[in-house]
Amino acid sequence: MTVFFQSELFLQHDTGSHPESSARLKKVMDRILTEDITGLLIFDKQVKATSQEILRVHSSDYVADLKRFCDGGGGRIEADTVVSSESFDIACYAAGHAVEAVNQVIQGQAQRAFCAIRPPGHHALSDQAMGFCLLNHVAIAARHAIEQHQLNRVLIVDWDVHHGNGTQEIFYQDEQVHFFSAHRAHFYPSTGTVDETGAGKGRGTIWNLPMDYGISREAYFSNFERVLNNAALRCRPELILISAGFDAHKDDPIGSLGLESDDFGELTQLVLNVANEYCDGRVVSLLEGGYNPEKLAESVVSHLYKLGED
Q1: Looking at the predicted structure, is the pLDDT value of residue 13 above 90?
Q2: Does the pLDDT value for residue 184 go beyond 90?
Q3: What pTM, to 2 d.p., does this model score?
Q4: I need a labelling partner for 250 at 20 to 30 A (CA). Which of 57, 58, 59, 124 fits?
Q5: What average pLDDT does the segment 222-237 reach?
Q6: Which pLDDT score, from 0 to 100, does residue 310 have?
Q7: CA–centroid distance for 238 within its chain
Q8: d(Cα 286, Cα 121) in Å, to the nearest integer?
Q9: Contact, 87 vs 80, CB < 8 A?
């Protein structure tokens, strides 16, 4: 069974005409209602992350500053990121959905989960908002799996077109959380080179796969599968988390690597192959980027159909 986590609450993160708008999520939720996806259970409740869960990843000063900025009416918190008065609370609910998804998958209530949440998270640093992101949900979920459920090894797979720099930085010296990012080379935020592999106890736990604009889809998949399998062999994960950005789609207005909507089903299958081998198929996927609402919805549906197969 796959659980689809959603809430109308996430539409209240008001960014105006910003590309990361509520129209993205509204299109996804509306589209899911028209689909008949095997074994899909919709979870439409509000679960808020606790301070303890958030502070495992983010500094207390940053969290306080973020809340104060939003409580003051919001605005542009950094060059690319717009928030409203409700955005801090909504980000906490998004992190809460990620944590609850981990709970349900690890406890056996579901085998897989997808969280249709916003704002996205993978650029958020421990002490700074960045790139449309306020709280790093996938990092909070990974820490929760380790601290609350006593897992020893978690693999994060990030296929957003942008490098997940925040996630990488948070876990750069961590031996328990391994990170694999496939992203467009020489693109925002100008990180994620192949020589960024971790440090200290985390040396060898980071895999970056920067791919040039114009790469063929065949080469994209071949490279993705190769590096994913290497990362999984090293990690031997007990849980896989996906930072599922869909902005590598050929029709995305912000970033593209030439992928079609159905290709995200193929990417999902590659991750499931690894999950089935190492961790009994346990996967939690979190929405990151994707800024063409129609193509985002198509791509999420492709992702969910594959997650529901077995």
Answers
A1: yes
A2: yes
A3: 0.98
A4: 124
A5: 98
A6: 67
A7: 18
A8: 9
A9: no
Q: Which of 271, 304, 309, 308 is nearest to 287 (CA)?
A: 304
Please write down the HEC assignment for all residues of the chain.
CEEEECCHHHHHCCCCCCCCCHHHHHHHHHHHCCCCCCCEEEECCCCCCCHHHHHCCCCHHHHHHHHHHHHCCCEEEECCEEECCCHHHHHHHHHHHHHHHHHHHHCCCCCEEEECCCCCCCCCECCECECCECCCHHHHHHHHHHHCCCCCCEEEEECCCCCCHHHHHHCCCCCCEEEEEEEECCCCCCCCCCCCCCCHHHCCCEEEEEECCCCCHHHHHHHHHHHHHHHHHHHCCCEEEEEECCCCECCCCCCCCCECCCHHHHHHHHHHHHHHHHCCCCEEEEECCCCCHHHHHHHHHHHHHHHCCC
Phi, psi of 142 (to 5 degrees): -65, -45
Q: Is 123 a catalytic residue?
A: yes
Output b/e per residue, 232-260; b: 16+ Cβ within 10 A.
Answer: beebebbbbbbbbbbbbbebbebbbbbbb
Active-site hit among 123, 144, 162, 303: 123
pLDDT, tens digit (0-9, with 9 covering 90-100), for 89-104: 999 999 999 999 999 9
What is the model's pLDDT at position 139? 99
The mean pLDDT of 235-257, rounded to a whole number, is 98
How many CB atoms lie under 10 A from the CB of residue 152?
11
> What token pair was written down for 8?
């109308």
CB of 231 closer than 8 Å to CB of 201: no
Least Cα distance to 306 among 266, 275, 253, 256 occurs for: 266
Burial class (CB in 10 A: 0-12, 13-18, 19+), 86: middle
Nearest to 304 by CA among 86, 100, 38: 38
pLDDT of residue 148: 98
Q: Please state the rounded mean pLDDT for residues 54-67.
A: 98
Please state, in angstroms and rounded to a whole number, the distance separating the CA atoms of residues 143 and 212: 32
